[in-house]
Structure to design on (318 residues):
């Protein structure tokens, strides 16, 4: 079953290409597990469990999937081994659909909130600043007024990189330079956004997970100063995770959700890894929407995450 309604052909092709390494690894392992088998038996299920875990789906989510397939085998009495990938696709799609988190259709912003304040968190190296740059480009393309806040003041590269994105997208970047107070940057970014009647302000934060106490204190301070202008802000706390790190991404998600109120997830760098299965595990384990996935280096390779399209691409063979 395909769900192509919301995706253009180009986006679908980009998604298919971005998941190639994951697909090649997964289907290669699955083919070996089914060699010489005519039906799904205990050995096949044991092998499938191992394949899903090694594809970074995660232990808890893998066990859920295996239990569902076991139930199908028991109910249908005889399941042909050649149909296993079809059954697997159906069960993963059902599992992700049951996580009733709201999905975006595109890069639209809520009409009744202005400026919409997004605070972006995540450890160094996950593609946080690049994700902010790509997001700002997508919003600008749709006619929104965007302001960026360079609040990762502990890394000169992060401030400079955000400024470059600002120049590229013709978007103002509020920066106080390196080793300055991130909360002060956030305050000025929101103030500027209010004054220029911007639609959205995106605030970068320090990419550190040194101790949860320090992280909480820093993020809480940023929230407090933002709320002096907009009491309900930030409207979104977006956690960026590097999909190529597999289970480390899941661990980071767990730690950040303990430290702050994460409301949305972006999973990057899926095109360079065979660990794309981590999206299934993260989507299943956390009742937080995966809003965006990164499947390439181009601006349009940051895509709005669609569960059905993702599973469909994952099981699309060449």
């Amino acid at each position: 079953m395909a769900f192509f309604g919301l995706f253009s052909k180009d986006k679908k092709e980009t998604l298919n290409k971005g998941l190639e390494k994951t697909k090649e690894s997964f289907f290669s392992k699955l083919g070996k597990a089914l060699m010489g088998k005519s039906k799904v038996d205990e050995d096949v299920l044991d092998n499938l469990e191992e394949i899903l875990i090694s594809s970074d789906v995660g232990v808890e989510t893998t066990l859920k999937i295996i239990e569902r397939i076991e139930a199908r085998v028991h109910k249908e009495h005889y399941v042909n081994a050649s149909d296993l990938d079809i059954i697997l696709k159906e069960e993963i799609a059902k599992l992700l659909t049951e996580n009733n988190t709201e999905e975006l259709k595109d890069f639209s912003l809520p009409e009744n909130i202005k400026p919409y304040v997004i605070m972006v968190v995540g450890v160094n190296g996950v593609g946080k600043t690049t994700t902010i740059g790509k997001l700002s480009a997508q919003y600008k393309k749709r006619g929104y007024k965007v302001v960026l806040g360079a609040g990762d003041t502990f890394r000169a590269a992060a401030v400079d990189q955000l400024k470059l994105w600002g120049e590229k997208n013709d978007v103002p970047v509020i920066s106080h330079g390196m080793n300055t107070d991130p909360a002060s940057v956030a305050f000025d970014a929101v103030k500027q956004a209010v004054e220029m009647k911007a639609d959205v302000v995106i605030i970068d934060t320090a990419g550190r997970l040194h101790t949860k106490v320090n992280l909480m204190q820093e993020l809480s301070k940023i929230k407090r100063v933002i709320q002096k202008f907009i009491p309900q802000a930030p409207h979104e706390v977006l956690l960026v995770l590097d999909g190529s790190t597999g289970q480390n991404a899941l661990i980071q998600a767990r730690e950040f959700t303990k430290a702050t109120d994460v409301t949305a997830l972006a999973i990057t760098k899926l095109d360079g890894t065979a660990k794309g299965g981590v999206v299934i595990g993260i989507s299943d384990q956390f009742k937080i929407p995966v809003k965006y996935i990164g499947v390439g280096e181009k601006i349009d390779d940051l895509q709005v995450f669609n569960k059905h399209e993702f599973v469909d691409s994952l099981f699309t063979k060449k």
Remarks:
- The first strand starts at residue 116 and ends at 121.
- The chain is about 50% helix and 10% strand.
